[in-house]
Design brief:
Layout lengths: L1 H43 L3 H17 L1 H7 L2 H19 L4 H22 L3 H4 L1
Length: 127
């Protein structure tokens, strides 16, 4: 009977950590997505400097949590987001490529949303 209780506690602990992890991934990625959406809106309004500052902030926030993401997520997805952020910054820093920034930003936000979807506790993700 004691083994059953220990196994049950271990399963409960793993379940709670999974729920916490999904929440952390969601919160951290939603923050980056919000910054990128604000940057896109600033660029559309003609404020390239604000767009650049917001994208730099998104990149900085992502890099701050890189170790967490590398620990709990698939490395290739984390690397794709990191590369996408650097590409978006490069497009913004080049004053001639506003359209490319919009495309890179949209693709990046899509990757982040897919990453959040993969971490949700749903039946499809459990199977």
């Amino acid at each position: 009977m004691r083994r059953l209780w220990i196994a049950s506690l271990i399963l409960l602990a793993l379940f709670l950590v999974s729920i916490w992890n999904a929440g952390e991934v969601r919160d951290r990625t939603e923050h980056v997505i919000t910054l990128l959406e604000q940057a896109e809106a600033s660029l559309e309004a003609g404020d390239r400097e604000t767009a650049l500052a917001l994208t730099e902030q998104a990149n900085s926030d992502w890099e701050t949590h890189d170790m967490f993401f590398q620990t709990v997520l698939n490395h290739s997805i984390v690397d794709q987001v990191s590369i996408g952020l650097r590409e978006a910054l490069a497009y913004l820093q080049d004053r001639e490529t506003g359209g490319e920034y919009s495309a890179a930003s949209a693709a990046l936000m899509q990757r982040l949303q897919m990453m959040m979807k993969m971490e949700r506790l749903t039946l499809g993700n459990l199977l």
